[in-house]
Each structure stands twice: as structure tokens, then as C-alpha cells.
Amino acid sequence: MATPDTQPTPFPAPTKSSDGLVLDNPTAVTCTSFSDKILLTVSQAGKLAHWVHVPLATTNADPMNPGMFHNHDTTNELLPMTHLTATTVLGGTKRDDEIVGQTLATTIGSAILMKQPQEERMLVLGLGLTGASGMGREGFDAVVGLVLECL
Fold this sequence. Notes:
A 6-stranded mixed β-sheet has the order 1-2-3-6-4-5, with helices on one face. With 151 residues, the protein is α+β, with helices and mostly antiparallel strands. It has helices spanning 95-115, 136-150, and strands at 15-22, 25-33, 37-44, 50-55, 87-90, 122-128. A hairpin with a 3-residue loop joins β2 (25-33) and β3.
């Protein structure tokens, strides 16, 4: 995978973008940080076809145990956090692509919370991946890596 070229822009909202290859497909990632949400887009061939959101607020995790996130079990840190729920907002007409999109969203949300445990904004993820359901683990990991470079 090529080294991403990341460029921050301060106005109107802090925005970063990076480009790279995911399974030989040019992929563009953009991250815009608003006061109430983090907007991420992952696009191949200039398309965005599936939108997912994930609430990152820890109050959604377990109202009976508000400190559970800060004292979480580190045994499964490579897995998406179980309290995160991705919901398709637009698109998702192909069930296999929808599953990949929701899994990407919870994985990215988990990575954000690992870096910033106090994050409470909504993660909104727009995807336009070519053949998302057939990209396999290598493609999935490449997308996550490209997104993490942009955050």
C-alpha cells in the first residue's frame, strides 16, 4: 500500500484526507470533525453508496455500569466493542455489503474510542467500496488502516 498523503484544513471544520490503494483500487478517505459528529467517507471510483452511523457516547453502553468502558477487558481489543451499534442510514440494499459496512463502522468507532475514550460524538461513515462483500480480510484491514491514517 502506498504511503497516504494527509492534508489538514482548518475551516469550516477540521478536515483531513488521505489517498491510498485497497486491493489495487484507488481509495480516497476524508474525515471532517464537527462539534457533534465525525464524518468519514471512504470512496472508490468517486462513489458513495452506503451510509452508516454509530453513536460513540459511552452513556449508550450500559446505564447500569457507567464506568464499564474505562475499565473494559483488554483481552479482545482487536475486536469491535460490543456496545457499539452501527445502523444503516442510506443505501445498504445489498445485504453482504451492508454487513461489511456496519462491521467497518463499529471497528472504526472502536479505534476512535481506543484513542479518545471520552469521545461522545456520532460517527457517520459514508462508503463507496467496489465489491465490498468480496474484499476479504486483506481489503478490510487496508480500509481500516487508511481510515486510521486520516483520523
